[in-house]
Design goal:
There is one protein chain. The protein has helices at 8-19, 41-51, 66-72, 77-86, 103-106, 120-129, 149-156, 195-202, 272-287, 305-317; strands spanning 2-5, 24-26, 33-37, 60-62, 91-96, 111-115, 133-134, 162-165, 176-181, 184-189, 206-207, 230-233, 247-251, 262-265, 293-296. The protein is α/β, with parallel strands linked by helices. It folds into 2 domains: 2-202, Alpha-Beta Complex (DHBP synthase), CATH 3.90.870; 230-316, Threonylcarbamoyl-AMP synthase, C-terminal domain (Rossmann fold, 3-Layer(aba) Sandwich), CATH 3.40.50. The protein has an 11-stranded mixed beta sheet with strand order 1-8-2-3-7-4-6-5-9-10-11, with helices on both faces. The two termini are 23 Å apart. The structure holds threonylcarbamoyladenylate and magnesium ion (MG). The site of threonylcarbamoyladenylate has 32 residues, from strand 5, strand 6, strand 9 and strand 10.
């Protein structure tokens, strides 16, 4: 494996790996992705292998233009309006797929998830590769998402052909995912583009949380984003610490008055954008501090707060060993 700063020469190298059916870790504005040629089933299979991702969980295909999106999916006028407004950016659209997209990429579904990332390294990589790039977040399945190249390197242990280091990601939570069904728009995942922003353009969304007849989102498992330590999402009550356990604390605006081994603050000024950008990097830091339990404070449910709370709830849902 090669680990390189994301200079134009390094991006060229990564593009060559992608063209030959290899894999590359690259920065996006949300989190780092583990990419391969989306039109090459053997290359896409490597992503599942490296991440230990189950085959039922489809990948997001990254494109460099709306034109490229139209080669892969049937783009409805509503979807195109959203692309024109929010691309490049942290918005993924699930659309009816065209035959050119291999089944392995969509986990056998008749839809494909598409996104045009806003990070210049990511866009340059897609353009130089000359092919759309399938890329999930560059973490082991079910674990914390990577917002720095070192996070991906630690989890994927040399298995990708190349890692491009583009520094800390700007947004820090994954893209919002929308699906179109029965002339309605469903929110499948809260993400880096806040609900309020999307609804300004799309009108009120049908939330998967509120609807019975909902489109499938196979990757939205409760036990996801799991640190090695057990994560507990706090309520309003002050927590009681048990003797003999090593505690970490993820605070929203200020360090707790509790005696914990390690504490981190998401945003001293209470800025939810800053909090989102720090979320995974702080969790990675806490998780590397040899803790038994991470206590996490809730954040307000508005703007990027929804995406943060979604990740914290899933991180708290189950504990994965290993
Ligand atoms: O910001 C992001 O979206 C990052 C960067 C790398 O672009 N990528 C990312 O990918 O978060 P991943 O694989 O970790 O999450 C993709 C999500 C999963 O929940 C998956 O189930 C859903 O998108 N998804 C993909 N294709 C789908 C489809 N055809 N129908 C419904 N959900 C789909
Ligand atoms: Mg992921």
């Amino acid at each position: 494996m090669i680990f390189l700063k994301a200079t134009p020469a390094a991006v060229k190298k990564a593009a060559a790996f992608i063209r030959k059916g290899g894999t590359a870790v690259f920065p996006t504005e949300t989190v780092y992705g583990l990419g391969a040629d989306a039109l090459n089933p053997e290359a896409a299979a490597k992503i599942f292998e490296i991440k230990k991702r189950p085959a039922f969980d489809p990948l997001i295909v990254h494109v460099a233009s709306v034109k490229q999106a139209k080669m892969l999916a049937f783009v409805t006028p509503k979807a195109e309006a959203l692309m024109k407004r929010f691309w490049p950016g942290p918005l993924t659209l699930v659309l009816p797929k065209k035959r050119i997209v291999p089944d392995i990429v969509t986990a056998g579904l008749d839809t494909v998830a598409l996104r045009m990332p806003a990070n210049p390294v990511a866009l340059d990589l897609i353009k130089r590769a000359g092919t759309p790039i399938a890329a999930p977040s560059a973490n082991r399945f079910g674990r914390l998402s990577p917002t720095a190249a070192a996070h991906a390197e630690r989890q994927l242990k040399g298995r990708p052909d190349i890692i491009l280091d583009g520094g800390k990601t700007r947004i820090g939570v994954e893209s919002a995912v929308l699906a179109f069904k029965d002339r309605r728009i469903y929110l499948l995942r809260h993400g880096g583009l806040p609900l309020e922003e999307i609804e300004k353009v799309a009108g009120p969304l049908a939330s998967v949380l509120r609807s019975g007849k909902r489109p499938r989102s196979p990757g939205r498992l409760a036990g996801h984003y799991n640190p090695s330590a057990k994560l507990i999402l706090l309520g309003k009550k002050k927590p009681e610490l048990k003797k003999g356990l090593r505690y970490g604390y993820l605070a929203f605006t200020e360090k707790p008055a509790l005696k914990v081994k390690k504490a981190a603050v998401l945003s001293p000024s209470g800025d939810l954008k800053e909090a989102a950008a720090n979320l995974f990097s702080h969790l990675h830091k806490l998780d590397n501090a040899g803790l038994d339990i991470i206590l996490a404070e809730p954040v307000p449910m508005r703007g990027l707060g929804r995406a943060i709370m979604d990740r914290l709830k899933r991180a708290a849902a189950t504990r994965k060993k290993g």
